[in-house]
Amino acid sequence: MILQPIAENFIIRYSKYMSMDSHVRFAVLVPLVKRSGEWHVLFEVRNANLKDHAGEISFPGGARERGERLEETAIRETVEELGICDEQIVILKELKGTLAAIRGQWISSFVGVISENATLLPSPDEVASVFTVPIDFLKQYNPELHLMSGRYGVPVKSYIYRYNGYKIWGITARLLKNFMYCLEVVEELLEERENP
Question: Nearest-CA neighbor of 42 among 82, 100, 87?
Answer without folding.
Answer: 82
